[in-house]
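Here is one such protein, fold included:

. . .
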Amino acid sequence: MKRAISPYEDLANAIILTAVEDYREVLRILSLNPNNNVAVGEVRSIERFFRSGYFGILTKLDPEMLIKRLNEEVTV
């Protein structure tokens, strides 16, 4: 029998997915314009979130692996 996902897990997943989508978008922006200071700041901010204790509470994902894979998507 499949375990039901709690509303808290749904919320945690939504927070992480939003951060991932935002990160992908700013990486795309930076790939087109590496001098975009706003995008650079946003990348740093999202990476801080990925490496934060709060992220660790929300998920068991390895933040460094996540950052690496998302960066590889943009360079492909």
